[in-house]
Each structure stands twice: as C-alpha cells, then as structure tokens.
Amino acid sequence: MKKEIINKLLEEKAAKLRGEKLRISLLKDKAMQNKTYFSLNSQKNILEMEISLCIFNGKDCNAKEKELKKIKKEMTLNLKSMGISPADFEIHYDCPACKDSGYVNGALCDCINSKLSKLILSSCGMPENPYSFENKNFCALPEAQKEFMDKLYSRFIKYCNAFPDIKYPNALFAGFSGTGKTVLTFCILKKLAEKNFDVKYTTAFSLNNAFLNYHTDFKNKKSLDEYLFPDLLVIDDLGTEPILKNVTLEYIYLILNERMISNKATIITTNLDLNGILNRYGERIFSRITNKSNTFVCRFSGEDIRKLL
Ligand SMILES: [Zn+2]
Questions:
Q1: Which of 73, 194, 201, 235 could join 126 in a cystine, given CB atoms 3.0 to 4.6 angstroms apart?
Q2: Domain 124-308 = CATH 3.40.50.300
C-alpha cells in the first residue's frame, strides 16, 4: 500500500511539472508572436553564437557582450509591455529542495514523506477513532488493571520506538470484549504510520471475505499483497469469522507463515483462550500465533495478565 501511495504522490508531482513546462512553452509561443520580440530574440541568438565563437578564438568580445546586454534589456521591456515578466518563463516548483522530482540524493524528499503518514493512516483499513498513545487515559480502570495497562502501554511505546528491530515483533492479545485489546492496536498502528511504516488493519471477518474472493473469483482476482507485505498487520477479533472449508485455515496459515518468513510483524486480537485457538485452528496455525521465539502473548483480564508481564 505504501508503495502505491508513494507512486501516486510522485505521479501528481510529475503531472504538475508537465503542466508547468506546457505553461512556459505556451507563454513563449505567445511572446514570439510579437514581431519586435521575435526580432530581438533572433538578434540575441546570433549574438550569443558570435560571442561563443569569439571566446573560442580568443578574441575580444566586450562590444558584443554590451550589445547583448542591451538587447536583453529591450526584450524585458518588450515582455513587460505584453504583461509578461522574465520570471514567468521559469518553472515554479512546489518544492525547491527536490525540484518536484520527489527525491533528494536518491532518498524520498520531505515533501513526500510529510504526506505519507496521513495517507497510510487513511488507507490502512483502521476505522476512525480518537485513541493514541498520547491521549491514553486509564482513570476509569480499577487500580490493579490501571497498573497493568500502564506497563503494557509502556512496553508497546518502546516497541514502536524500536520498530522493526525488536525481539518480539508479533503479539497475541487475548481476552474478553471491551478489555481494550483493539484500542491498543489502534495506538500502535497510528504511531507506526506516523513513522511512515506500512501498516494494515483488518478484522478477521473481512480478512476471511478477502480469502474467499481470492479463492473463488478468478476473473477479478485481487491479490493478497495488502496482507502479505505491510510492515505490521493487525488481525482484529480472530475467532469471529466463520471457518470456510479449504479457505479460512489454509489462507490464515499462508499469511502468517509468509509474514513470519519475511520478518513482518503481526498482531492478533482474539476473545478465544489458548485452548480455544488450538481447537479451532489446529496445531500448525496455533504454533505460529503463539510462537514463543517471536511473539508476546498477553491476556487482557484480571490476574493472569500481570503474571504474563
Ligand atoms: Zn520535495
């Protein structure tokens, strides 16, 4: 998704630049229709050629240079009479730093980077919400849970700061509805999007529909790239989707496995407990969701949570 957004921004810049070049060429045509300007312009071209020759032959060209200066002045005055200033012939760049190419020394220019995070956020699939690490508020929670949430949020602020070089890139947030699992994923998604990482949010239900479309629609096959390639994929509410034969388990495994191989982070929330996950998805998927070597498993309820931290 990030790649597509960058390409779109670069194409917008290129189109604007093409527009500028066209504007200048039309303006030049207009000026050339003025007989005086046309004649002065021809004189200027001849003089410039003669001066080059003089310099090449080592001859004195002071007189010709003076003449050229005079003609240029006349051209400017003539342009003014047509309501044109010489600056109108120059390209007006939106971003002088990259001259609207989008790149500075081979790296993306800030004019692109500054727009990226907003566009990543608005297209990552996350519903609009007011939550972020900056405005977290646990006042309403019981004391024990407040302490837990503070620790948990600190942990994931560090996670975002160090991303993607982290020991446990994956996480499983298990627990009942309304315990704040999804809200924490929103905070993480926003923070990483702010840092221009490619992030994607989906509910397990929507993901399952995407799998079904991919599996059955051969005409308009939409690829699964949007789930395979983001730096972080959040799958919300695993367990609420229907298990479709030959689809759900096969594609969940494919996505999790491919992401694990390419070291991409995945965070899953679920109302199921570990046994529930094992029973519903089987050993192959269970071992990827709860892989101790790269996954932080956290239960969002009561005493269990603190033991896991
Ligand atoms: Zn720029």
A1: 201
A2: yes
